[in-house]
């Protein structure tokens, strides 16, 4: 199993990068005994300004063959943390790769979104795509602690 976050844009040094790195490190440590691999980050950038279509082509190259494709999109399903953890465990038990896709400022190209196995929303509000990385990293860590039976999650 591989876990990949494919995201448009490069996360620059700063609080978002520090938080994302911290949560991904925590996830790697908490997930290892559960059979969950560390997350690989694939950052893509369309330097020619081709818009969502060009970004989608770059993102598609970062998605492992056969991976469950999960797009983060404000139109997606709102999951609670235990449900998210259950899905992570299911993919792990199937030994299936998972790729989480975070689009750029304009979102995810509709054709790529249509390919998704799951579209999830982090709430009804629109979030900056760089902050979405932090929120996803935190939820991955929270999922690992839920699966481990740890005290991090409070229902």
What attributes characterize this protein structure?
43% helix; alpha/beta; 155 residues; Alpha/beta knot; five-stranded parallel β-sheet
Describe the model.
- With 155 residues, the protein is of the alpha/beta class.
- It has one domain: Alpha/beta knot.
- The protein is 43% helix and 21% strand.
- Helix 1 packs parallel to helix 5 (129-147) and helix 3 packs across helix 5.
- The longest helix has 19 residues, at 129-147.
- The protein is globular, with a radius of gyration of 15 Å.
- It starts with a strand and ends in an 8-residue tail after the last helix.
- The model has no long low-confidence stretch (mean pLDDT 93).
- The run of helices and strands is EHEHEHEHEH
Distance between the termini: 28 Å
What fraction, in percent, of the residue positions are helical? 40-55%
Largest beta sheet: strand ordering: 2-1-4-3-5
Number of strand elements: 5
Number of helices: 5
Principal-axis shape equals: globular
The radius of gyration is 15 Å
CATH superfamily: SPOUT methyltransferase, trefoil knot domain
Give the tally of structural domains.
1
CATH topology: Alpha/beta knot
Which CATH first-tier class would you pick?
Alpha Beta
- SS-derived structural category: alpha/beta
Give the CATH architecture.
3-Layer(aba) Sandwich
Low-confidence runs of at least 5 consecutive residues: none
Strand content: 15-25%
What's the rounded overall pLDDT mean? 93
**Main pleated-sheet profile:** 5 strands, parallel
């Amino acid at each position: 199993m591989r876990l990949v976050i494919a995201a448009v844009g490069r996360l620059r040094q700063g609080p978002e990068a520090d938080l994302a790195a911290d949560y991904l490190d925590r996830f790697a440590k908490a997930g290892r005994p559960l059979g969950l691999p560390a997350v690989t980050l694939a950052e893509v950038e369309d330097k020619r300004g081709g818009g969502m279509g060009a970004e989608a082509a770059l993102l598609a190259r970062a998605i492992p063959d056969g991976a469950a494709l999960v797009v983060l999109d404000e139109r997606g399903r709102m999951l609670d943390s235990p449900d998210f953890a259950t899905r992570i465990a299911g993919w792990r038990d199937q030994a299936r790769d998972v790729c989480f896709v975070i689009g750029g400022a304009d979102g995810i190209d509709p054709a790529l979104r249509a390919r998704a196995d799951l579209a999830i929303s982090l709430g009804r509000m629109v979030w900056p795509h760089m902050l979405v990385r932090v929120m996803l990293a935190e939820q991955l860590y929270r999922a690992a602690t839920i699966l481990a039976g740890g005290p991090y999650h409070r229902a």
